[in-house]
Design goal:
By secondary structure, the chain is of the alpha/beta class. 30% of the residues lie in helices and 22% in strands. It is built from ten helices and 16 strands. α5 links the parallel β3 (65-69) and β4. The chain is elongated and about 80 Å long.
């Protein structure tokens, strides 16, 4: 999974590494993400998980990109577009087994019509139907209810495949459903291919079961240090006022770099010899930290916003969100340095 700029890690660099390492497939969200990889020398198979307008069928075929199809109507549009070009489009079919997002409806009363629509799809000309997949909603969450829901999704997925293969006389070459949570907790659901997302980057390892480590650190430096007397208000909105003579540092990182403004006055960052509390409203390009008790921290000192010394989960909890969002929020203007 290298969508959203490889979860903020840099899609081109990550994809080149995965290609060299022998991965079989990459997955992205949209056509622009797929074309970026093709234009930068990534030649391995790429699956688009989202929708691509049928008028771009020729672009998909020319660049050897596999397209997700989530409904019979869409399948017909791609079939017609490919037929008009005299070519064939490779696709993967997506089933909605309980995520309630994209995919052929097939749960409950929709089972028979879902199977019927799938049988019609596999009979369409101009389509090379390589695979079929679904997406789990709670495979990464604990509890009996979540386990039961995940297992019900898996059973529905395999039941639909069996019905289509039996009634339509068609066999899917690649079946896949295991996202990060299932890779860790339900290895029996691996089938022909797995789709680790956050797990690929060292997160979502369910208590470190696999021994993975996060591969991204977000760091900045102290650009300025000033002293303020008690009663000095700091930053926009005057949401922090010094209670003592304060040695205040300015960091070259703000919400335009991916540091959520919602974290203002709620987080600390790792510095040489300890942690420094963030003070005042986080600005677009910078934020302030209290260095009063950290005399060893000077202009130019490195500050880890998240990484090995300062867990991203602290930041995501303060922002009332999930690590995915923070990783994806690291903006393009932040340099990526790969080691």
């Amino acid at each position: 999974m290298v969508k959203a700029d490889a979860y903020g890690h840099g899609a081109v660099a990550v994809s080149r590494l995965l290609q060299e390492a022998g991965a079989d497939y990459l997955a992205v969200s949209c056509l622009d993400e797929a074309l970026e990889l093709r234009q930068n020398g990534v030649s391995m198979p790429i699956l688009i998980l989202g929708h691509t307008p049928p008028e771009y069928t020729g672009t998909l075929i020319e660049n050897g990109i596999t397209q997700t199809v989530s409904a019979l109507a869409k399948a017909r549009e791609y079939s017609e577009a490919a037929g008009a070009l005299g070519k064939t489009l490779k696709i993967h079919i997506k089933l909605d087994t309980g995520m309630s997002r994209l995919g052929y409806l097939c749960a409950g009363e929709y089972f028979e019509t879902g199977v019927e629509n799938l049988c019609r799809t596999v009979a369409l000309p101009g389509l090379d139907i390589e695979g079929i997949y679904t997406h789990f909603a709670v495979s990464d969450e604990p509890g009996e209810d979540c386990e039961a829901y995940t297992r019900a999704q898996f059973k529905l997925f395999t039941d639909v495949i069996e019905a289509v293969e039996r009634q339509g006389g068609f066999r899917f070459r690649i079946r896949h459903c295991a996202n990060s949570g299932a890779v860790v907790s339900y290895p029996e659901m691996a089938l022909d291919m797995v789709r680790p997302g956050l797990l690929l980057y060292g997160y979502g390892d369910n208590s470190g079961r696999l021994g993975l480590r996060p591969c991204m650190r977000l760091v900045t430096t102290v650009s300025t240090i000033k002293f303020y007397e008690p009663g000095t208000s700091v930053s926009y909105g005057r949401r922090f006022v010094t209670a003592r003579r304060t040695r205040m540092g300015v960091l070259a990182a703000g919400y335009a770099d991916g540091l959520p403004r919602l974290c203002s006055n709620k987080v600390s960052f790792a510095v040489p010899g300890g942690f420094t509390a963030q003070r005042g409203s986080i600005c677009m390009d910078m934020c302030m930290v209290d260095l009063t008790d950290l005399p060893q921290v000077n202009v130019g000192s490195e500050v880890e916003l998240f990484g090995a010394e300062n867990s991203i989960y602290k930041l995501s909890d303060a922002a009332q969100t999930i690590p995915y969002e923070l990783l994806c929020a690291v903006s393009k203007r932040v340099p990526r340095v790969y080691t």
